[in-house]
Description:
mainly alpha, 2 domains, 11 helices, 0% strand, flat, coiled coil
Amino acid sequence: MNVKEPNGQRSSPRALRTRYLYGPDSTNIIPEIIDGILHGLSIDKIHPDVYPYLHPEMALRQKKLMAEKNTRGVSTIKQAMNTIEKILQNKNRSHDENLAKLEHEDELREYGNYLAESEEKRKNKAQFTEEELHLGVQLALDEDFDELDPRMLRKLMPELRRLQKESIKNGNYLDAGRYQKAAHKISLLNTQIKYEEMTAEHAEELENRVINMSFDLARLKQKWNKKIELAQEQLDQDIKALIKEQRKKLAEFDEQFNSDVPLTYCKYTTLVADLRRKEEYLVSSKRYDEAHEMRERVEAQMREEEKTFRDKYYADLILKRDDFISKIEKKIRVRQDAANIQIDRLLVEKKREITQAKKALARFELESQQAEALASGTSFGLSASGSPTSSSRRNASVDSASRSARSTYSARSIRSYRAPFPSAEERSTEEIFRQRRAINNIIYTRTLSPRLPSIHRK
């Protein structure tokens, strides 16, 4: 099938992308590029990133061609170098202009930030111009309290009172009534904002106290654990030292088993004395054979009695050793019992102090939760009967959206959500009294966190 081409040119021809014969990675073939330029290669076919590397080599080639008296080549190289220099100059000029533009924008931005900071500092000092006060008066008359700067409320009160007096003086009673009504609402709004700020500060103070007390409780547990651990280590060291000392004493006592039998145990019987007298009689009678036999009987009797002496001595040593060991065990047991009693006392004291700290922390956590609930639930959208009005029900749905805008300066940007300013019919005397009583409690009551007990080594 033959397709008929449209007559004429395209109304909006598509722009073709420039195709480079030598891209930015062609810096290693500079001589080849110069040869191409000498043979008619256009500068436009070379990527601009290659120009800074190409220009010095072209200058060297130009000198070489001049030495060879190649005028045509010199002219071609010179023309290409001029083109490259113009392109680089335009590029540098564009870069400098962009840099200057950016610097100018930075200066304007810094100056704008400086002006904004100056304006905020001036407003923080409650210094407002006449135009700003006039705009604030108009916003108060229009009941557009959302656009009011909370820092202007104290300045608006005397201004509205002054305008009210001037209206009465001039006979404009309707305007005087409007000013009086606006001043009354500004006064109520100022009280509400002050109440919200103070409840928010009180809640934040309690929250910081809870955090600090949590850290103090953790440190208290660590200190007690370390103290009990050191006491246990000291107990083990004392017991080991005592056992070592008693073992040394027991070894000294056991050395008595290798010593000679004391003389107090070596008391021979009368039989030995009788046999010795018989031995002497036989010797004096020159009956030597019988005397020799008698001598052997004496020595046998003495050996038998010495064995008895040694057995009795060993038996007494064993009894004394058992008694000595029992005394050592009793001494170690007494030391262990005393140390365990000391550790038990430390455990009891630890439990008591930690329990007290936990109770204090729980009490402040409860107070912090109550203060947080009071700060986040501050709203004047209740009627005298206590039932929520339509405006409070409507604005309850946008509670989360209002919380995200706390950082902006407006009459509704105090720490938590606040419903739009209600009408005079929605406020009750009892509610105003409760609010001002809460303000007085916050101002004149100082919350003191319990001081955690210090640890003293016993």
